[in-house]
Write a structure and sequence with these properties.
Layout: H1 4-14, E1 28-32, E2 35-38, E3 44-48, E4 53-56, H2 64-74, E5 79-83, H3 89-92, H4 95-104, E6 111-115, H5 117-127, H6 129-139, H7 147-154, E7 176-178, E8 181-186, E9 189-196, E10 203-208, E11 213-217, H8 237-249, E12 254-257, E13 263-264, H9 266-292, H10 297-301, H11 308-311, H12 323-335, H13 350-361, H14 364-377, H15 380-393, H16 398-414, H17 418-438
Helix pairs in contact: 8-9, 9-12, 13-14, 13-15, 14-15, 14-16, 15-16, 16-17
Length: 441
């Protein structure tokens, strides 16, 4: 078993992460008496309540069995309850394996505790299934292959289903529904369930008053908060900060996140949560002040920056989401979808705009040549604009798309966040598909 507390203490106190902090080993490590964590695609906090095992999250459908196997090496007690910290697929999909294990052992099916919006989320995921599969393939595709490949890498040796449904049809539904707050007893221990908005509108954080433990779900992810995902529904950065402030007020002594390392020590936890909350509050305050002053989104996203010293914290690095995307989310939350540029309220098609600019410039080749010069000089933002215009003007020209693919591959390599890498890799693949079609492949 790994000593996760020792590792997190070293990382937090030194301010440096010299080794991975978001690990997906599938291994169980004890954190305290009767308390363990399985590090997976999302972690599963596992507590032996004395009245059966209570698990906070279940990981993904393709890692759920691995998680259950690890737990069963630790305890054969029945699963009393599964707590969905929120309804994202990597937190609920593994419930299939938990339900199957309970049935195989002749145990009663576990209760499933979740916020009232979880089932609404499941309905939406099923309604937009193909869209969600596609955007997650793109989101995770900038690192290694598409999402199926990523999940195949995480799949246990015993195999598992390919990802055709964003969440499995037999994902366990909630049985114990929480609104704003609920308190439940497990054996002689009381656990409080608090609703807060953050990455989702269906999030719960769980508080153990006696032990002073808090299971935070994705309110702490050991990355910059995922409050601005460019392909997903609205996130709630200011409400996220409010939830963190509410957790600080409880003075927890052990923090158990769904991604990253557990953190021990009241002062250490308060410091980490305060820094995360402060970063979100700064972005909201700065963005809204500029909105109130009449600035456009274009001006705001190029003006509001989080200090590099903050982004250097091992639990605030922009390796998944990033502040620029959060600023866009704040604009959308408080200002709608229009970015303030009149021409983009009811725009021309991208293709007609690209063709018009290519005509003015002297051809798509001229636009692409300038894009390559800009990329070589390091101005990848502007280079990508021109590469897109050239690609739209010459949608079937393999040489144009070969250059476009190379520019976006360079852009991908220059980015830190997984979301940016995934989208830019997706653009590169679009052009690679044009090249293959032209060659008859």
């Amino acid at each position: 078993m790994a000593d996760l507390i020792a590792l997190s203490t070293k990382v937090v106190d030194s301010g440096r992460a010299d080794e991975p902090v978001n690990r997906t080993t599938g291994e169980l490590s004890e954190i305290a008496d009767g308390l363990a964590m399985v590090e997976s695609f999302s972690h599963v906090v596992t507590w032996n309540s004395g009245d059966g095992i209570v698990c906070f999250d279940t990981s993904h459908v393709n890692t759920g069995q691995q998680v259950v196997d690890s737990i069963r090496k630790w305890s054969h007690d029945p699963f009393n309850a599964l707590v969905y910290t929120h309804g994202h697929a990597d937190h609920v999909g593994g419930s299939v394996a938990f339900g199957a294990n309970a049935a195989a052992l002749g145990h009663k099916a576990p209760r499933v505790i979740g916020h009232k919006n979880v089932q609404r989320r499941f309905d939406r995921y099923r309604y937009t299934n193909d869209w969600n599969v596609a955007i997650n393939a793109r989101q995770f595709g900038g690192i290694r292959g598409d999402l199926n490949s990523v999940m195949n890498d995480l799949r246990p040796a015993s195999g598992g289903p390919r990802l055709s449904n964003f969440i499995p049809e037999d994902t366990l539904d909630t049985t114990d529904v929480v609104d704003k707050f609920a308190s439940m007893k497990f054996g002689d221990t009381t656990v409080e369930f608090h609703h807060g908005k953050g990455e989702t509108d269906d999030h719960l954080w769980s508080w153990f008053p006696k032990q002073k433990w808090v299971a935070t779900g994705d309110f702490v992810i050991w990355n910059f908060p995922n409050a601005g995902n460019p392909q997903k529904v609205q996130r709630f950065p200011i409400e996220w900060a409010e939830a963190l402030r509410a957790i600080i007020a409880k003075e927890p002594e052990l923090l158990l996140p769904a991604h990253g390392l557990p953190i021990a020590g009241k002062e250490r936890i308060a410091r980490v949560l305060d820094e995360i909350a402060s970063a979100l509050e700064y972005l909201v305050k700065s963005t809204v002040e500029m909105m109130n002053a009449g600035e456009t989104l274009n001006t705001i996203i190029h003006s509001v920056k989080v200090p590099e010293a903050t982004l250097g914290k091992p639990y605030l690095r922009p390796l998944y989401d990033e502040p620029e995307f959060v600023v866009r989310g704040i604009w959308r939350q408080f200002g709608g979808w229009w970015d303030g540029a009149p021409s983009r309220l009811k725009p021309a098609t991208d293709e007609s705009l690209g063709l018009e600019l290519a005509t003015l410039a002297g051809g798509a080749e001229v636009l692409m040549a300038r894009a390559k010069d800009l990329a070589a000089s390091g101005d990848l933002r502007l280079a990508c604009h021109l590469a897109d215009f050239a690609g739209w003007a010459a949608p079937d020209e393999p040489n144009i798309h070969r250059d476009r693919a190379e520019i976006y591959e360079t852009r991908r390599k220059s980015e830190s966040s997984l979301m940016a890498k995934g989208i830019f890799k997706g653009a590169s693949r679009e052009s690679e598909a044009v090249i293959k079609a032209a060659l008859g492949e």
